[in-house]
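Supplementary notes for students who missed Thursday's class. We covered one full example, reproduced here. Read the sequence, then the structure, then the short commentary at the end.
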Amino acid sequence: MRRALIIGVNGQDGAYLAKFLLEKGYEVIGTSRDATVSSFANLTKLGVQARLQIVSMALNDFRSVLEVIKKFTPDEIYNLAGQTSVGLSFEQPVETMESITFGTLNILEAIRFIDSPIHFYNAGSSECFGDTKNLPASESTPFSPRSPYAVAKTAAYGLVNNYRESYGLFACTGILFNHESPLRPKRFVTQKIIQAAWHISKNLDTKLSLGNISIYRDWGWAPEYIEAMWLMLQRERPEDFVIATGKSVSLEYFIEKAFSYHGLSWKNHVLIDSSFLRPSDIEYGAADPRKAEFILGWKAKYDVDDVIRMMSTITQDAE
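Structure (token representation):
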């Protein structure tokens, strides 16, 4: 039985990955900063909490990271932890850098010290590319980060490459574009829109306040992105991959589709609030995921329209 360690197991990606690996027959260990008090709501929603072992680990504490990895000596490690909000990174830049950059460094150092043939996956981000200016970003596109979150992810990406080249570690980064699901916290704009459209359909006096809705993003379905992560660690040679649908639309488009699902016109219910604007933002994010299709055999089955429909349907059914 193969053993996997998922760092940040209760997040959206961590929970879906735990379910995916358990179904493949893995022994799964998940980490949380404090496993004794965490609710693990996402694992519970997916019905898998009782099927994996959960341990406490502080990602910014090297000793904590080393002890957990040394104790379980996993075949695969997936680093999905760290501060995940671009907007929040402007308010908490130090915590963002520590949890993402130094957290990744602690994992890499622990793997090097243990000297075990562990396959390591690092969660990268399309935010590292910055504004792609209508051009799809591939693995060879230079990074131009525009937020503390993106800077932290860019630094982590560089560390992974350095340890791979310098020490021969099997370490790679998945540069994932936006991927959504019902497990998204409500602070994420897509979930905020989906939830608001549903509630407004029941109470037409309610309003939704948003910031810049002219931005373009590539939105995919999170549960199927998990397979791409796993496929990256099944290869003989580690490489980095862009994971996306290849289709970008505006946030206004996302809003319009989410509201029209309930028979509403979004313009009657959405307010633009300047307090939601970020100090700097990416106007256009587009992806070229052809390498993943060619080498991994992975291609997104669902695009943004499917994502909106599935999230809206699940939200409505849950209510």
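Commentary. The longest helix spans residues 93-114. Residues 205 and 269 are 8 Å apart (CA to CA). If anything here is unclear, bring it to office hours.
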